[in-house]
Structures are given as C-alpha cells and as structure tokens.
Amino acid sequence: MVIGFILVSGEAILVHTWLPGSRGLKKCVHLWLQGVALACGIFGIWTRFQAKDGILANFYSLHSWMGLICIALFGAQWMMGFLSFWHRGEARRVRIRVLPWHVFLGLYTYGLAVATAETGLLEKLTFLQTIRNVSKHSAESMVVNSLGLGLALLSAFVILAALSPKYHSSQQTKLVYSQDTKSFSS
C-alpha cells in the first residue's frame, strides 16, 4: 500500500514536472502510474480481507476507515481521469473547469494516503508496545518512527514540487479562460 499509494502515486503526481515530452505523453504516463498505484492499493486491501477474521473485523480503527475513504477517492479520481483521457469529445470548457478540482482531489487523496500510513504506523507501534512489551526506545520503535518521518518529508517534497511554479516545465501550456468573451486561448 505504501509503495502504491505513496511512492508510485507520488511519481505520477510529479510526472508533469519531470518528464520531457508532449502533454499527451505526460497524461498517459500519469494515468498509467496512477493505475499501477490503484492496483497496488486494491491488492493490499484484498490481502487484508483474506484474513480469517472477515471483512468487518478489520474496520475498527481510524487507520482502517481512512484507508477505505482513501481507496474510494483514489478509485473515483482514477476513473474520472481515465474517462476524461480516453473520451476526448468532452467540451474543453468542462475539462478546464474540472482540472483545478482534479488537482485538489489528487493532492488531497495523496495527503490522505500519507496520513493513513502514519496512523497505521502508530497503530502498529502501539500494538508492539502494549502486547509485546516493546520498549519506547527499542530498535523497532526507532525504525517505525524513522519511516513515519521519512513519509512525512517525502510527501512534503512531492506536494511542494507539484504546487511550486518553479518546478513546472517551461513547455507547459497555460490555458486562460476569459469570462467576458467565453473563449479559450493558450
């Protein structure tokens, strides 16, 4: 789940800034990488539901509910992107109006995935400390805390690079919508 939703999805978010080439190529790679991330997430949830306790026994914590919301948002976001990418007949005006929401929901879902991973790490560390009597200063605690800090730093860099105009490629086309003339220009 971490590899799919955080690492691969982070790369997919940054594809528009680091990948040279046409806008269509960047969109195709973005869609493909997000599809790989979604497949990793679905596989992760599927393996968790294969436990002998059943499906409902797994939804007892904030981590599990955040994960369910995250995968639902991620799946809806990917499906909308897929339909928009392959169905070019949509009015350009609609696609331009939806783009800021797509970016917001994508970054929100990415942040939610990181927050879900952080709560999962906290849940695991709590179980280790209460059930197995693992010390607060043990090697396991340090590894879990280091991983949590690493995920937080990684997400900060991904979101900064995605939002910062400094990192956008110079070839990126900016669309301007004029409310007065109801026309588009690039």
Automatic annotation (TrEMBL):
Its cofactor is heme b. It is found in: Membrane. It catalyses: Fe(3+)(out) + L-ascorbate(in) = monodehydro-L-ascorbate radical(in) + Fe(2+)(out) + H(+). Keywords: Electron transport, Heme, Iron, Membrane, Metal-binding, Transmembrane, Transmembrane helix, Transport. One of its GO terms (molecular function) is transmembrane ascorbate ferrireductase activity. Coiled coil: none annotated. It is an enzyme of class 7 (translocase). The keyword Aminoacyl-tRNA synthetase does not apply. Its EC number is 7.2.1.3. Residues 1-163 form the Cytochrome b561 domain. Pfam families: Cytochrom_B561. The chain crosses the membrane at residues 29-46, 66-86, 98-122, 142-163. Its main location: membrane. InterPro entries: CYB561/CYBRD1-like (IPR043205), Cyt_b561/ferric_Rdtase_TM (IPR006593). PANTHER family: CYTOCHROME B561-RELATED (PTHR10106), TRANSMEMBRANE ASCORBATE FERRIREDUCTASE 4-RELATED (PTHR10106:SF41). This is ascorbate ferrireductase (transmembrane).
